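Q: Sequence in, structure out?
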Amino acid sequence: MAIPNICPKCNIGLVSKDEEGKPMLVCNICGYKREITNYTEHTCSACGYDKATIEYFGIIVGDEAALTMYKCLKCGKVEREGYA
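A: Exactly. Output:
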């Protein structure tokens, strides 16, 4: 089973990069590339990049709002929307 964000050739972590407007995971050792397909439009408050992965946690407790987490594909900053 392949581990996400790990290079299948070098077995090291892939880094996210923007190549021609497409978010990619890239290996800095061998050059392996894979396009990131599960992202959304979200502007990062730290670097201004407009693409992020998203995790939706829904309603955790009945009296709380839903929790959504965005992770910037450029700098890695995680931002919350809702309560935790």
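The chain has a mean pLDDT of 84.
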